[in-house]
Amino acid sequence: MNSSRNKYRIAILGAGMSGLCMAMQLRKRGIDDFVVLEKADEVGGTWRENRYPNIACDVPSHVYSFSFELNPNWSHSYSGGAEILAYCKNCVSKYALAPFIRFNTEVTRAAFDGSHWQVECADGSRVQAEVVVSGLGGLHKPNRFQAPGLETLNARHFHTAEWDENFDLNGKRVALVGTGASAAQTLPGIAPLARQVTVFQRKAAWVFPRRSAEISDRRRTLFNRYPWLMRLYRWLVWIQMDLVGVLSLRRNGLLSKSMRKQALQHLQNSVTDPALRSQLTPDYAAGCKRRVIADDYLTMFNRDNVSLVTAGIDAIEANGVRDKTGHLHEIDVLIEATGFKPFDITEYVEIVGRDGRQLRDVWKNRIDSFRTMMVPGFPNFFMMLGPNSATGHTSALIMIESTVQYVIKCLALMNKHKIKWLDPDPAFVTSYNQRLQRDMQKMVFANGCSAWYTDDNDVNFTLWPYSAARFLAEQNRVNREEFLLN
After folding, report:
1. What is the average per-residue pLDDT within 353-370?
2. Can you list the alpha helix ranges (DSSP code H) found in 60-199?
3. Domain ranges for the chain
4. Phi then psi dihedrals of residue 335, to 5 deg
5. What is the distance between the alpha carbons of residues 69 and 97, in angstroms, rounded to a whole number?
6. CATH level 3 topology of 144-211+239-338
7. Pairwise CA distance, residues 447 & 392, whole Å
């Protein structure tokens, strides 16, 4: 492929799991008229950026892999970040994607000129494409910790997504801000090294046992020898996760009480101090916020060098963190385990649709979409893991694959009928999102717990309120009547 080209049929933004899936499926179909624009110097997205100690996926390995590219050699039931990154690189190698990827090419603007998308990059380069597929994801930029006096802190300070691998934590006094998924993985990785770890908790998390284990050589041998057995195993895990997940996340559902009981039992088994258990017990419905899946997180609070602060942070001072009781916690390093901003794409990429419409303006008051992947007024612009495509119970890769297949079918439809662009019908989009939000009220997600995936009006613009199986079924067919065509 000629890297000096600037005109393509398809421009893919990002070489994380979403972008790679899109590129792989195009290659499988013999479609080579595309380019992947990646800001970094290697692939992997989330698994490239996040390198904090103990990082791992909270979805079983054989489900957190592409259905068309299963891996019989996973070493652990819940793969670590390094192993998933290696999987991404293996996919690039197998599908010969390297010539299609432009590294160190950060997209800053994408504008529709009436017939094509003009994509501008930070290095001054430009690409013209008929179709843009954003694989930038819904969780891209760190959600920065804010507190008065933060700029005066003399201690080292970084986010889990910007881990300083050269900083030695041995013997250090650490402030860990947050108790979500990244904190639950980071704490067991740093507590044995640090002199003291103080965890600052705003809200307790519902923590469930992972029951993780190494995958035996025998099982790996069987999966290599009998791929159908590996695929059957994947299906069984997938179906169980989907069925149990949806039933446990429905308000007053068949399994909602069982889920709460399981988490409380895990807390009881893990933490010896009753007062500490009380502080670590959430005061909202299980599943309203993102669930934490971890075997060793809660046990860390039994250590003499780990303490929990629930009073809240009053201010940051030169020597440490002062909580709202007035106590100053002197520290050597502050680590933000505060997650990411949801759907912040408009903060770092200017996206301009028909008639000069800015996506940031369209989404200013409410974030919604066409089938989780498009927005009216932005023809031929597709988003992987767009609004309301995430689940609280299964693998994001299932949703990614489904969306990629939908894009492939849209491309086929455009080729067959000589369609220049597809633009979602606003009327359909309105009814579609009304239905999603109506049915969202049946889930524990809509429970007023101020989760990161809701807006200021408690509208959930992030999660899918049904099963993953239903997501696949609804995305299975492209209906021309849902579009304005040109």
Report:
1. 93
2. 81-94, 181-190
3. 7-141+341-485, 144-211+239-338
4. -115, 125
5. 15
6. FAD/NAD(P)-binding domain (3.50.50)
7. 14
Helix segments in 309-362, DSSP class H = 345-348, 359-362
How does 156-180 read in b/e, with b if 16+ C-beta sit within 10 Å? Answer: ebebbbebeeeeebeebbbbbbbbb
CA angle 288, 291, 296 (to 5 degrees): 150
Say if 7-141+341-485 and 144-211+239-338 have the same CATH topology.
yes
To the question of domain 7-141+341-485 being in CATH 3.10.20.310, the answer is no
Q: Which residues contact 413 (CB under 8 A, 6 or more apart)?
A: 419, 422, 478, 480
Three-state DSSP class for 19?
helix
The owner of tokens 């029951």 is 211
Q: Render pLDDT for 119-149 as a digit per residue (tens, 0 to 9).
A: 999 999 999 999 999 999 766 678 889 999 9
- Using the predicted structure, report yes or no on whether residue 280 has a pLDDT greater than 70: yes
- pLDDT tens, 281-322? 999 888 888 889 999 999 999 999 999 999 999 999 999 999
Mean pLDDT of 160-176: 93
pLDDT band at 2 (very low <50, low <70, confident <90, very high): very low
CB 28 within 8 A of CB 68: yes
Residue 375 C-alpha from the chain's centroid: 20
What radius of gyration do the chain's Cα atoms show? 23
Count of alpha carbons within 13 Å of 50, Cβ hemisphere only? 27
Is the whole-model pTM more than 0.90?
Answer: yes
Could you please report the per-residue DSSP string of 190-222? Answer: HTTT-SEEEEE-SSPPPEE-----BPPHHHHHH
| pLDDT surpassing 90 at residue 446 | no
